[in-house]
Amino acid sequence: MAQSTKPLSTAAHSIPSAPRYRTIFDDLKYRIGKGEYAIDKQLPSERRLMEEYHASRVTVRHALQQLQEEKLVHSQKGKGHFVSCPTAVQNLGQLLGLGESLSQTGMVVTSKVLALEEAPASPEVAEALNIEMNDRVTCLQRLRCINAQPASFNTSYFPVDIGRYLSEYDLERQDLFVLIEDRLGIELSTADLVMKIGKSDKSLAVRLGIEKGETVFEIERLTFDTKGSPVDFGILKGRSDTFQFHVRVPRW
């Protein structure tokens, strides 16, 4: 007589669901990332979160602790939890766009295109791109945002034989470096960087959501392709409380 086989328990093969606190953490992180809670805005109280997510106080506190550990929020004693200004750590030892460098952090990088037009090259731009003064260049101005919060104001200049194609692509969601290499077929190689400290004027302050006269950092970046030809001359002005830069240098 054939021996009967006892069916295996389905519980042994089921995929465990995420812990409840993790679900709350992921949802709050998403809402912070899309800008529902702005910088310095207070999150709902623990009681409100308990009611919204039908969770215990211990579970809600665990989720809030995880948000603090990822530096997405900070607590103020007796007041609650507030959204922190995102800190973007960029490695200057590698040529990466902002979205590329933050892709593994969970931060959401977007851009708002403020201008895309042809203009005569100024002496500074002409020298950088190795063209004649008043030659036509493509000027792209964007407001870069991290977790829906203004982070930097970028102005980029391109030779027109490159810049004329930019309007065909989504410049608000794609890094320029990725676009230039993957869409335009131009392989990038190196970049020269010059970093400065400056003060925000009224126009920049409004764009970045800071006070006029606040300290900002400025980066001039000239990017070259593998043939040594200049591809992009960019001027970036960013909030000093949003970025950190890391670079390792040899002794000799």
Task: Please give a structural write-up.
The protein is α+β, with helices and mostly antiparallel strands. The chain has two domains: 19-83, Orthogonal Bundle (Arc Repressor Mutant, subunit A); 88-246, Chorismate lyase, CATH 3.40.1410.10. Strands 4-5-6-9-8-7 form a six-stranded antiparallel β-sheet. A two-stranded antiparallel ribbon has the order 1-2. The protein has eight helices and ten strands. Mean pLDDT is 88; it is low at 1-16. It has helices spanning 20-33, 46-53, 57-69, 98-101, 123-129, 160-163, 176-182, 202-208; strands spanning 73-76, 80-83, 88-91, 109-120, 136-146, 149-159, 188-199, 215-225, 230-239, 243-246.
N-end to C-end Cα span: 81 Å
List the uncertain runs: 1-16
- Percent helix, as a range, is 25-40%
CATH superfamily of the largest domain: Chorismate lyase-like
Count of distinct strands: 10
Shape: elongated
Structural class: alpha+beta
CATH topology of the largest domain: Chorismate lyase
**Number of H/I helices:** 8
How can the largest sheet be summarized?
6 strands, antiparallel
The overall number of domains is: 2
Please write the string of helix (H) and strand (E) elements. HHHEEEHEHEEHHEHEEE
The residue-averaged pLDDT reads: 88
Taking Cα atoms only, what radius of gyration do you get, to the nearest Å? Answer: 24 Å
